[in-house]
Amino acid sequence: AGFVLVERGSRHPTVPLDLLGDRLIGPATAAAILAGALMFAQSAFVPLYVQAVQGGSAFVAGLVLTPASFGWTAGAVAAGRVLLRVGYHRLVVSGALSMLAGSLVLALVPARAGPVWVGLASGLVGLGMGQLQTPLLIVLQGAVGWSRRGAVTALNQFSRTIGGAVGVSLLGMLLDWRVRAGAPARGLDPALLANPLQVGGSVAARARPLLEQGLHLVFVALVLVSVATLAVALAILRLNRAGGATAEGGSTDG
Fold it and tell me: Quick one: angle between helices 88-108 and 115-142, nearest 10?
C-alpha cells in the first residue's frame, strides 16, 4: 500500500501505475506475477523434493532443473518463429497449458516414480514459460510508445520477480505449517526439520513421509497457480478476439 501511495505521487515513478489500467498490460502483468511464482517455486522446492523425499543426490537435484532452462529456450525460439503467424494470444494460452501440465505431473506422479518424472515436469514448465513470457514481452513493448518501452519492459520483469518472491514465501509458509502440524504425531521436534537436508539417520526416515505430504501440498498449490495463469491467458485471448471484432465492426477507436 505504501509503495502504491509513493508511486502515485511521484513525477517519475519506478512503476507507472497507469499502465496497469491498460486492457493488455494489466492482464499481462498478472500473468507475469503468476508465472514468476510458479517458476521460482519450482526452483526452490523441486531440489528439496528430490533430495529429502526421493533420496537423490545434490547433483540429481540440480540435474532435474536443467530441462527447465532448455525448455524455456526452446519455447522462446519457437514462439519467436511463429508469433506473427499464429498470434501472441494463442502462444500465451499454449504456454499456460504447458505450465499446467508440468504442475500436474509434480502433483500427481508419486515420489517412487523417480526423478525422471520430476525432470519432465521441470521441462514442461520451462517450455510454457518460453511460450508465455517472450510473446507477452514483445507485445507489451509494441503496445506503448518509444518513450515508455523501457518502463513497460521493467514492469514485466519486476512483476515476475515480485511474483516469485511472494509466491515462494507463501508456499514456504504452507510447507512449514504442514511439517510443524504433523511433526509431534511422529515424535519429531519441528525445530529439527528447519533444514531437512541436514537431518540424517532415523530422524530423516521418520521425517520423509511428512516432507512428502508437505511438498505434495505445495505442488497442489502450484497447480492452482497454473490454473489461475491459464485463466488470465484465456482472458487475454478473449480480449484479443473482442478487439478484433470491434475493429471489423468499423470502430473509430484509434
Answer: 160
Q: What is the CB-side half-sphere exposure of residue 15 using CA atoms within 13 A?
A: 17
**Burial (Cβ within 10 Å: 0-12, 13-18, ≥19) of residue 166:** middle
Mean pLDDT, the chain, as a whole number? 85
Region 58-79 average pLDDT: 93
Cα Rg, the chain, nearest whole Å: 21
- The pLDDT assigned to 253 comes to 40
The rounded Cα 247 to chain-centroid distance in angstroms is: 33
pLDDT at 113 over 60: yes
Q: Terminus-to-terminus CA distance in the chain, angstroms?
A: 34
CA angle, 70 as apex, 68 and 76 as ends, to 5°? 95
Nearest C-alpha neighbor of 27 from the set 93, 77, 80, 75? 93
CB 206 within 8 A of CB 18: no
Pairwise pLDDT comparison (180 vs 131), residue with the higher score: 131
d(CA 104, CA 69): 19
Q: Which residue has the higher pLDDT, 231 or 202?
A: 231
DSSP string, 112-176: GG-HHHHHHHHHHHHHHHHHHHHHHHHHHHHSS-GGGHHHHHHHHHHHHHHHHHHHHHHHHHHHH
CA distances from 223 to 74, 139, 205 (A): 23, 26, 28
Residue 183: how many CB atoms within 10 A of its CB?
A: 18
